[in-house]
Amino acid sequence: MIATSGRGQIAERVRKGAAGPKAGGALGVLQRMGRVRVGDVLLKVLTGVVAGGAILAMLAILVFLLRDSWPSIVYNGWHFVTSQTWNIGSLYSTAVTHRNGATAAAGASFGILPFIVGTVLSSLIAVVLAIPLAVALALLLVEYLPAKIGDSLSFMVEMLAGIPSVVLGLWGLAVLIPWIGQSFGPFLAHWLGWIPIFKGPIGSGQGLLASGIVLTVMIVPIIAASTRDVLRQTPRETKDGALALGLTRWEVIRAVSLPWASSGIFGAVVLGLGRALGETMAVLMVSGNAANYLPHNIYSPVGTMAATIVSFLDSAMSDPTHMAVHALAEVALVLFVISVVVNVPARLLLSAAARKGGVQAQ
Fold it and tell me: For residue 166, what pLDDT is reported?
């Protein structure tokens, strides 16, 4: 009877949650009574291992890049990010150059300033074009369309983000580049030619503008989906109160929804920027893959860091000193650092916006 009574008391305390805040509720009762299941402990351990594995993977990539790029870091120094000349040197001669204990082929020079500029400019063009399109699309899905239609279109928007980049690159080659070279480029040069970056020559259409437009198509779904999720967390009571005070729907969006979701929208934009910085195949197919000079207008052929690694890897493997491969590893290291610097703040802002939405919902 005593044992039965004790179990009944425990069950009653668990049912009512009478353990109180100090004891942690019903779970606290079970923990103090030694009744926590083995599965709970295993789940906690497994989730910790998975989370730690992601961090270890990042560190492993960083260590790998540092190890393989170290000879290039020693050989090139800061010249690597300030020079405009990329030349792996003479591969048909036994002559070599020694510098700071590192060896490279005669005449080798590794400078990635044009690739950095091409990466940054093409990504900025994409972000400038994508922000109004993505935010407008998110507002349409959340504020104006019925819920069922909005959910269906949201699914389609998310599907756009899954289109392989090589498919967009082929679209760029077949459709976008001829359009820029024959129609859009001359239009911009005619009406905006007084601005130096829009002045010709236009060329074939391959170049900075084509890269920016392709990247825009790639990142609009990412920014729109994240912005949609943030806008949905805007407190319903605040919006209804603003409508009750006589504000129009657009005034509510401008005075309530957009200011409340601003940090999340900024995080979504930075997240899209991080995606644009690392894109390879689509940009390689439409950029012109230029090297050793800086773009002089928006139509100029450019090279990006990611595309450079892919396009120069084959020739770099022929370098008997292996310095060209080490230099490409350093390009990857610079791109890795830039991507981390861009993506980490974006993730933190999105997480903060999500927590803000949870607090408001409570």
Answer: 92
Confidence (pLDDT) at 16: 53
Return the closest-CA partner of residue 116 out of 324, 311, 305, 351.
305
The answer to whether 129 touches 216, Cβ cutoff 8 Å, is yes
Q: What is the per-residue pLDDT across 338-347, written as a single tens digit (0 to 9) for each?
A: 988 887 777 7
Could you tell me which of 273, 257, 182, 265 has the C-alpha nearest to residue 227?
A: 265
Max CA-CA distance within the chain?
Answer: 96
What's residue 350's pLDDT?
A: 67
Residue with tokens 């997480």: 351
Chain centre distance of CA 190: 34
Alpha-carbon gap, residue 44 to 266, rounded angstroms: 33
Reduced to 3 states (helix: H, G, I; strand: E, B; else coil), residue 38 is: helix
Q: Which two tokens stand for residue 291?
A: 């090297």
Q: What is the pLDDT of residue 306?
A: 92
- Among 290, 263, 265, 163, which Cα is nearest to 218's? 163
Closest to 336 (Cα-Cα) out of 65, 57, 60: 65
Positions of the chain with pLDDT under 50: 1-3, 14, 18-19, 21-23, 30, 33, 359, 361-362
Cβ 71 vs Cβ 319: under 8 Å:
no
Indicate the pTM of the whole model.
0.83
Q: To which residue do tokens 């899209």 refer?
A: 272
pLDDT score, position 14? 47
Choose among 181, 232, 186, 230: nearest CA to 204.
Answer: 181
What is the fold, at CATH topology level, of the domain defined by 113-361? MetI-like fold (1.10.3720)
Question: With contact defined as beta carbons under 8 Å apart, do 208 and 304 qualify?
Answer: no
Joined tokens for residue 272: 């899209």
Q: How far is CA 330 from the centre of its chain?
A: 20
**Can you tell me the distance from the alpha carbon of 82 to that of 91, in angstroms, rounded to the nearest whole number?**
24
* Domain locations along the chain: 1-36, 113-361
**DSSP conformation class of 198:** G
CA distance 177 to 349: 36
How confident is the model at residue 136, as a pLDDT? Answer: 94
